[in-house]
Every structure is written in structure tokens, then in C-alpha cells.
Design a protein that fits this description.
By secondary structure, the chain is of the alpha/beta class. It has four domains: 165 residues, 3-Layer(aba) Sandwich (Rossmann fold); 62 residues, Helicase, Ruva Protein, domain 3; 118 residues, Zinc Finger, Delta Prime, domain 3, CATH 1.20.272; 132 residues, no CATH class. It is 47% helix and 9% strand. The protein has 23 helices and ten strands. It has a five-stranded parallel sheet, with helices on one face. Strand 8 and strand 9 form a beta hairpin. The protein is flat, with a radius of gyration of 39 Å.
Amino acid sequence: MGYTVLARRYRSRDFDEVVGQEPIARTLTNAVASNRIAHAYLFCGTRGVGKTTMARLLARELNVTDELVEADAISDAIMRGEDLDVIEIDGASNRGVQEARDLIASAGLKPSRSPYRIYIIDEVHMLTRDAFNALLKTMEEPPEHVKFILCTTEPNDVLQTIQSRCQRFDFRAIPDHLIAEHLQHVLGKEGVEAEPDALAKVSRLGAGSMRDALSILDRLLAADPKRITKELIEEMLGLPAQSRIEKMLDAVLAADAAEALAVGQDLLQEGITIDQALDSLTESLRTLLIATTCGIDTPLLPLTDEAREVLGQRAEGIDAAGVLHMIARCEATARHARFTASSRALFDALLVRLSMAEHLASIPALLKGGPEPVSKKKGSQPRVKPAGIPSASPTRVASPPIPPTPAEEPIPEPIRESPAPPPMAATDSPLTADALWRRVLDEATTSSAKATVGGLRPLAYADGVLRLGREQDEDAKGGTSPARRDALGRLVGKVIGRAISIEIDEPTEPMEQPGTTTKASPMENHPEVRSALKKFDAMVIEVESDPSAARKESN
């Protein structure tokens, strides 16, 4: 007999053997046990995650009963896709409306020996729109003995009218550790040894597909039927040697650009493409990122004890932020290298740039005014700030801080949405309340700004607080509105480039004399007016009477 590939030979034989799709298997098992069987199912998911296998298992659960004389033979025929009552149809080669009409005609026939006539349509999204429309009525109200199981990798291409007639199940990608465990089980059945790191590599290459991982394992067994190693994987699949990738990464972390370039040259001379080299380097950086973030003992890294020890030494002295920067640079280089004839230059420039990260200026450190940014590796020399780049002050570059008086504290964080004022001259005297208020009055050029500062006078300025007083007038009796306080705070902040606190001493209202009438509160203290002022960030400038209301009162 001919050789049967691992993906077919080790296909799951019951719901308990299904890997990575336990929720779906449990749901279908309960549906069969409680006799809540739908007339149509839609299985969605990427390739190699068990859609067809699950369809066959469901068909076997429905059609193989204890009353059947040939139960075992029928079960085997269903799992092979050769049973008379379980018809498997390839949607890619039977996609026309005529094939759909033939299916509808055959659906009226009774099953030959099983309870149901089940149609499994694989790659159903390949059917034409006319074929879908022809199946609509039959799929909505099929004969009692007919069941449909549709499988697709592109559920968005399936008409919504078809999806609405099915129970949909979305198959997820199989986790790497579950693939590795299943590969170890298969190799145990085959009597083949394998390195744990090699199985982890194969599971990652499977990218969530069990069939892809088993296909890779088939190729490796054809090369060496006794033992699976990392070196065999790299040789057979044309992947960069992991030892060289790690050597290149160590050279980068040690700031040895010459060594990194030499290792990169050796990789490319072995026939490794730049894309493959960058992918492998990025994958190694991902491992380093997980180690620096979660620790080397995290279960996210399926590594041996020896590999974890080496990774721990490599992760010393580097933080997650540095690794993130390196991954970002690798991804950007890989993206640009695909569309240029100078991909080799970009690759070499990347290695040199990553190696020289210690000598590049740190923008966050410059903004903080720090003379020496934190180095990337323990024991390495501090970064040298390039000549010509001045040390930045803690404030905005466009707005140097105003020198505080001895009794004052530095003014808090600037209001970024307001433009910075021109800096004070070096001969200016320390800022006082009167000097600050004069600058505010000079800035108040518009009518609204003049109304904001009108009737106010400076009292004191200390500890980041400007205290103002109100003139003893009729408008002051109602107090200063919140909207006016906010406008005043923004104006003062715009003048000095920083946000400060505003305090206004409201005048005490005079005692009401007998026989006099107290004036009503200002319009801006009305609840609805106050709400509108706050919503639109406005203030009351002038109140005009309504002529029509005046005429009504006179009448």
C-alpha cells in the first residue's frame, strides 16, 4: 500500500480527540445527545484547523446508530469521505447553478442505510451567486432526512441569506503549545525522537494550522526518520541558522557593528534572503521582548532550561523599550526593502544603526534636560550627545521660564494650546503682581478681553497664585461668574506661558437700607444663562432689553 501522510493518518476519530476546538466539539456533542440537530451548519475558519474533520465526526454521530448491522464499516467510510449517504462536494469544482440543481434533485432521495442524507460542501464560498440562490429554498426547508454542513475559509464571501439559514461555528487558530503536544504524540506513535526546541519551531511555522505543521513534520521525517533537530529544520526549510541570528543579535547588543555586519554577510552568502534574515531577527527580538517583560520563566516561551539561561544573560541590561525600538526598526526596514533595489544597503544600515544606538541622542532625555541618557547595556559607555544640540529646558523650547522671585515657586505646566509669549529680557526685574497685570492689560486688545479684565486690580502674586480685587460697583455685587474666571485664567496663562491659579476677592455688599429695593442678581447668575456660558466658554458683555417686552408692559 502507498504511504499516507500524517495529516490523514492521524485525523481525529472522535470529538474527544479534536485539538484546539473543544468548545465546538462540546456543543455538537450536547446537540446530538439532546436531539437538537439543526438542518444546516456553517463551519468557518482558516485552513487546517479541523473544519472537514468536525463535519465528518458530526455526520458519523448522526448516521451511525446501534441498530445498524454494518456500523463499523459505515463509520470508517464516513471518516474516509466514501459513504453513500454522506456526500462530500468540492465547492470549487461544483460551483455552478446546474450542480446546485442536481444537488436539490438528489436531496429528495431517501438515504440508503442511514437515518440522514448529509451533504458536506467544502469551500462553499466558491459557489456562484446563482448557485447560492438556487439552494436558498432547499436549505431553509429541506426534507426531514437531509442535513447540510458547509465549510469555508472565507465566510464573508458566503451570502448573508445562506448564513441566516445555518448555525455558524467559527474555528479558531490552534495555539502553538497544543500543536507541539500533538506533534509529540504523533512522533511517539512513529517512534521518532525530537528536540523540544525543534517541535516548538515547527508549531510556530504551522501558524495555527495543524495540517500545515504535520505537513512540515512529514518533510522532516523524509529527511531523517530517526531524529528531528533544529539544524535539520533550518537545512530542510531553508531558514537562517538560529545560532547565527543569535550571534548577530549579541553583536548588536554589545554595540559591535563590525561583528554584526560580518555575521550578516555570512548569512546572506549562505543563500538566506534579506526578508528571511529580518524575519528571524525580529522573531528573536520578540523572544527577548517577552523575556524582558514577563521574565524568562514565563510559559509564553516554550524553551528548554539551557535556552532560558542563555536568554536570561542576553536580557540583562536591556529594557522592553529598547527591544521595542529594535523591533520597530526591523519592521520598517523589511517594509522598505521589498520596494527598493538597495535592500542590502538597508539591511547593513539597520545593523549599524542598532549597534550604534548608544551613541544616538535620546529625544526624551533632551526634553528633560538630562546630559546623559540611560545606556542600553550594563557596563556600556554613556551616550554622547552630538555637538550642536543644545540642552533643552524643562519647559517648552519656544517659551523659556520666567525667573521666579525668591518668595515664589516655579509656575506649573504650560497651557499647550495657547501660544507662548515672547521671553522676558535678561534685565527684567522679578515678576510682581503689578508687572504681571500690566502685561495682561497690554495683551487684552479685543473687546471681550477688555471686558474680562475690566474692573479688576492686582493685589498680590505669590506661590503661583494671582490674587485680584474687584471695584466696588453695582456689577460686582453678584460675584464673578465661573465663565469669566476661566477666561481670565486663560488670558493670564497666555501672557506668561504657564497656568496659574486666579483668586478674586469679591467686595462685600452694603447693608440694605430701609425703604430701598435690592437690585436683582446679574443676568449671568441665572441658571440657564450660566449653563450656556459654561457650554460655549463665553461671558456676558452687555444686556439689552427686549423692545417687544417693553411695549407689552406699557400696554
